[in-house]
Amino acid sequence: MKSTHLLVAALLLAVSSVAAAQTASAPTTATRPAQDLRFVVVHAPGPGWDSTKSVFEQPGLQAHIEHYRQWQLQGKLELGGPFMDGATGGMMLPVAGVPEAEVRRFAAEDPAVKAGLLRAEVRPWLIGMRRSPKP
């Protein structure tokens, strides 16, 4: 679990460094594009997690998947899935425009969170880099 937090912290530090560098060199005119801030749900094993089982064998995981499938079908989930290292956990990345309060409420309503299988943390994430469009 500690390595998951370190990985997420390193990723966020790298992204924020890039964003800060871009902000320092970006024009300050009204034509500057809006920033893409998302509220990411980072999951970690909760007290009900069985460390003797793989992520896909955890009782209650299917309810978690079905919960987030609702968002996927509504067009509110961009990406989501488990981390595949020994620390387990995972993250969900909502599409742009989903308000923080809605993300927090949806994460708290997750049956796996309510049952203690997972813990959920909502973090603000600024997209500092993305793939350039093909010419």
UniProtKB/TrEMBL annotation:
Keywords attached to this entry: Signal
- Signal as a keyword of this entry, yes or no, is yes
UniProt xrefs under SUPFAM superfamilies = Dimeric alpha+beta barrel
Lineage, top-rank taxon, reads Bacteria
Signal peptide (residue range)? 1-21
Sorted alphabetically, which InterPro entries does this protein's record hold?
Dimeric_a/b-barrel
Please report the name of this protein according to its UniProt entry: YCII-related domain-containing protein
Which species does this protein come from? Inhella crocodyli
